[in-house]
Amino acid sequence: MATTHTARPAPPEALPAQPGPPDAPSGTIRYWAAAKAAAGTAEEPCTGHTLAQVLDAARHRHTGRPEFARVLARCSFLVDGNPVGTRDHATVRLTEGGTVEVLPPFAGG
């Protein structure tokens, strides 16, 4: 009796960290709701000294998804759980192993 084997799909490879400045902290950028749909992923690694650097690298990484930049422009951000608010993104420093949460506007507020 012959047995058949079904080939398993290869596990997805980890995404490389987004390019950032040399010796920049690395962490994770998480996308929520419409930002997740626009990015095509829930999260990915990132590197950068500032929120501005990480967001610039994310825009570059997702140039093939034009909706991504439009959604990102309307988002608010948390860095390590702290709201960024209206601060200039170039002044928001990131830490090694930190997390950037990308939050699009939600219905009702």
From TrEMBL:
<dbReference type="InterPro" id="IPR016155">
    <property type="entry name" value="Mopterin_synth/thiamin_S_b"/>
</dbReference>
<dbReference type="InterPro" id="IPR012675">
    <property type="entry name" value="Beta-grasp_dom_sf"/>
</dbReference>
<feature type="compositionally biased region" description="Pro residues">
    <location>
        <begin position="9"/>
        <end position="24"/>
    </location>
</feature>
<protein>
    <submittedName>
        <fullName>MoaD/ThiS family protein</fullName>
    </submittedName>
</protein>
<dbReference type="Pfam" id="PF02597">
    <property type="entry name" value="ThiS"/>
</dbReference>
<dbReference type="InterPro" id="IPR003749">
    <property type="entry name" value="ThiS/MoaD-like"/>
</dbReference>
<feature type="region of interest" description="Disordered">
    <location>
        <begin position="1"/>
        <end position="28"/>
    </location>
</feature>
